[in-house]
Design goal:
The protein has helices spanning 11-18, 35-42, 59-71, 84-93, 114-127, 144-154, 167-177, 199-208; strands at 2-6, 23-27, 47-51, 75-79, 100-106, 132-138, 158-163, 182-185, 197-198. The chain is an alpha/beta fold and 209 residues long. It has a single domain (2-200), classed as TIM Barrel (Alpha-Beta Barrel), CATH 3.20.20. It has a nine-stranded parallel β-sheet with strand order 7-6-5-4-3-2-1-8-9. The chain is globular.
Length: 209
């Protein structure tokens, strides 16, 4: 499934194209939608993932995510770097609701120990009994595909995607490896991670595979 990461766009612009999209990720930290607009989007037929990328474990972001849970978001994505209390707060709030918990890990630099660091992060994420795991890491060497393949064998509920030199290739392969969805952007200017395809091109290519 092609999931479009939504950022740097106003509500009316997105509303005009949202009917064509089967899945979207709302980057609340890069959007300025009001409560009514969020509610309307999250009650549409498209699958929805909501996240708020922040280093702050504050009440405001928790409140925003809780609202989206109440509005019917399919997934709430929490970064593994957030505090345990923050993660537990969301985990407890979704109990008895249809929303599922996705915990993600993001490698910010291409380091020598990135494989080990990511495995530690994923094992930590598993300890929270997340419904889904997501990891994004730099793939600048051919050897990185070995780790990419290993992740899909070890974690059946993972979405592993690459950034950097082989980022685009990894996102096509991810669908073949069993990823439930892969992230794309509305356009090159609106991408939220290195290695994203734009939505239209990714759709065309993936349909040929």
């Amino acid at each position: 499934m092609n999931c479009v990461s939504i950022a740097h766009i106003n509500y009316e612009e997105f509303k005009n194209i949202s009917k064509e999209i089967e899945c979207f990720e709302l980057r609340l930290d890069l959007l300025n939608f009001n409560d009514q607009q969020l509610k309307q989007l999250l009650q549409s037929k498209a699958q929805s993932i909501v996240t708020y990328r922040t280093q702050s474990n504050d009440i405001f972001t928790l409140q925003q995510l809780k609202k989206c849970i109440d509005y019917g978001a399919n997934y709430i994505d929490i970064d593994i770097e957030m505090s345990p209390d923050y993660i537990f707060e969301i985990q407890n709030y979704i109990k008895g609701k249809s929303t599922q918990l996705l915990i993600s890990a993001h490698q910010k630099e291409d380091t020598k120990n990135q494989w080990l660091n990511l495995l530690k992060a994923l094992n930590k994420a598993q300890s929270y009994q997340a419904d889904m795991l997501k990891v994004a890491f730099f793939m600048n060497k051919k050897e990185d595909f070995l780790f990419f393949n290993y992740l899909y064998k070890k974690f059946p509920n993972i979405i592993a995607i690459g950034m950097g030199k082989y980022g685009k290739m990894s996102r096509l392969l991810a669908l073949k490896m069993g990823a439930k969805w892969v992230y794309s952007s509305l356009s090159k200017k609106q991408e939220t991670a290195k290695g994203q395809w734009d939505y239209t091109m990714f759709k065309r290519i993936s349909e040929l595979l």
